[in-house]
Design goal:
The chain is an all-alpha fold. The chain is built from 11 helices and no strands. Helix 1 runs parallel beside helix 3 and helix 7 packs antiparallel against helix 8.
Length: 234
């Protein structure tokens, strides 16, 4: 179990480091909006999606209705429906952990979990499905804890020390680049990555940054399903 925990902590480290900084900024924003560290902790426990939590600060400050908040959350996080399709063979076998894994599936944990799937061919620890699923669970735990710690610290220290937040969100971009490089090295088939990059850039230019993500996921997922079915028929 120690080896599993150590391995999971190593895999989660890039996520935890970035989450600490970003959630720290989130906690400061909550405090500046008149919502103390207790609110930062409460929202982080009930809502676990970084981008929407920042939007939630503005919604709560403006007195938006519950319906508006729920609808905004649905549209902003609809891409995660596609993430879950990748783990239909794993999550249902995790017993009581199932709902927690669904709740804590973020962009970052999704990327790490996919990397674990690719690495199981070369790393002995991951070849046992139970070990790999335990590692996935621990990665989710470590990531969630780091976000809550950062949010609470941001709320507390934001009352005492003035902070400049400009540029701090770039650490999330850096995290995605690191995860992408790690997956590129671990995976022999680079077609999905190249499809994602190509179609993502094309739709970004055509549709704009506010709406390109969901169409990109739908189109890339559809193409990959067709390609997979084609290979299985051969």
């Amino acid at each position: 179990m120690k080896s599993i925990t150590k391995y999971a902590l190593k895999q989660a480290l890039p996520i935890t480091c970035s989450y600490l900084f970003v959630s720290f900024a989130y906690g400061i924003m909550m405090q500046e909006a008149g919502l103390n560290a207790g609110w930062s902790l409460l929202t982080s426990l009930s809502v676990y999606t970084g981008a929407f939590q920042f939007v939630l600060v503005a919604l709560l400050s403006s007195g938006a209705s519950f319906f508006t908040i729920a609808l905004t959350a649905l549209f902003m996080n609809s891409r995660q429906v596609f993430y879950g399709l990748s783990f239909t063979k794993d999550f249902p076998h995790m017993g009581k952990k199932y709902w927690y894994m669904v709740h804590t599936l973020t962009d970052e944990t999704y990327a790490v979990n996919c990397a674990l799937e690719q690495k199981k061919e070369t790393e002995e620890l991951l070849q046992d499905d139970e070990n790999r699923r335990n590692i996935m669970f621990l990665v989710a735990i470590f990531s969630r804890i780091s976000w809550m710690i950062g949010a609470v610290l941001g709320g507390i220290l934001g009352q005492l020390i003035p902070f400049e937040l400009e540029g701090i969100d770039f650490c999330m971009t850096a995290l995605f680049v690191v995860i992408f490089i790690d997956q590129w090295k671990a995976c022999k088939d680079h077609v999905p990555a190249l499809l994602g990059i190509g179609i993502g850039i094309l739709l970004l230019l055509c549709l704009g940054q506010d709406v390109f993500m969901l169409p990109t996921l739908i189109l890339v997922s559809g193409i990959l399903i067709v390609l997979k079915e084609g290979k299985e028929r051969e």
